[in-house]
Write a structure and sequence with these properties.
The protein has a single domain, classed as 2-Layer Sandwich (60s Ribosomal Protein L30, Chain: A). Helix content is about 25%, strand content about 20%. It contains three helices and five strands; from the N terminus they run E-H-E-H-E-E-E-H. The chain has a five-stranded mixed beta sheet, covered by helices on one side. Strand 2, helix 2 and strand 3 form a beta-alpha-beta unit.
């Protein structure tokens, strides 16, 4: 029952024993301050983060997207909705404009419930954002065709819903 005593409300599943909420980080750079460039780069980054860590949507608590001050054409979180994350809590923010910092950058922090240790988490840095974490120079190889097929399939599905 809900708080008004009505209906049958689905119960939240408790966090499984041995599971913790872990942060999964990623960043990429965008070629231009336009909607399609921001969404395309964000979808690519998010898909690679999901695939590299085998993240299931139902295990995601929330995701935080930030952009540098020069990217304001759209909300990058829309890319997650385009990939089917309809029930995940999403929010966007603006990075602190530190002088000399990387520009044209989208960052993502996924709060993920998992049994993996912090050392097992794969953080993903693409394009110029690799300079943010040079210690994270390797990511699992994912064929470009797989990324494009997954992204295009999600967008086609979204188009069909409208």
């Amino acid at each position: 029952m809900n708080q008004n005593g009505e209906g049958n409300v689905e119960q939240e599943q408790p966090l499984r024993e041995g599971w913790n909420c872990r942060g999964v980080r990623g960043a990429t750079t965008v070629e231009g301050n336009d909607t399609e460039s921001i969404l395309a780069a964000t979808r690519e980054l998010l898909y690679i983060m999901i695939r590299a860590n085998d993240i299931r949507q139902e295990d995601v608590a929330s995701a935080y997207f930030t952009v540098t001050h020069d990217l304001n054409a759209t909300f990058p979180a829309l890319a997650a909705r385009q990939l089917g994350w309809y029930d995940v809590a999403l929010i966007c923010g603006l990075e602190i404009p530190v002088p000399g910092a990387l520009t044209g950058c989208v960052r993502i922090m996924i709060h993920w419930n998992t049994d993996r240790s912090q050392k097992e988490i794969v953080h993903v840095y693409l394009r110029e954002a690799q300079s943010l974490r040079p210690d994270r120079d390797t990511i699992p190889t994912i064929p470009l065709e797989e990324i494009e097929a997954a992204i295009n399939g999600s967008i086609d599905l979204l188009e069909g819903i409208r």
